[in-house]
């Protein structure tokens, strides 16, 4: 966690995350973004599930690169939250950006 409004997850692109073209599979990047969106709402004190999502891929993630997945809450409602996620490589190049609308299912006890 970066602070009370942002969550950071880091990981490396491994052979298991590659598609047949030798770059990180889009589904792998989406899974990272979706996971961080959920963790961002947990950091804000609520559990949630994804209602809607949208992702834009800008640049390929390559084998061995270190990825930073950063989530920030832009709407913090009682029933829904909106989380923006960006994925960058170790050179701070933006690889993907995503937006998630999350439905609140309960409070973190």
Automatic annotation (TrEMBL):
Record's keyword annotation contains Nucleotide-binding: no
Keywords, comma-separated and alphabetical: Hydrolase
InterPro entries reported in the protein's UniProt record: Acyl-CoA_thioesterase_PaaI, HotDog_dom_sf, PAAI_dom, Thioestr_dom
Transmembrane region(s): none
Pfam families with a match to the protein in the record: 4HBT
Domain Thioesterase, residue spans: 21-95
Lineage: superkingdom: Bacteria
GO MF terms, alphabetically ordered: acyl-CoA hydrolase activity
CDD domains documented for this protein: PaaI_thioesterase (cd03443)
Record's keyword annotation contains Hydrolase: yes
NCBIfam families: unchar_dom_1
Name listed for the protein in its UniProt record: Thioesterase
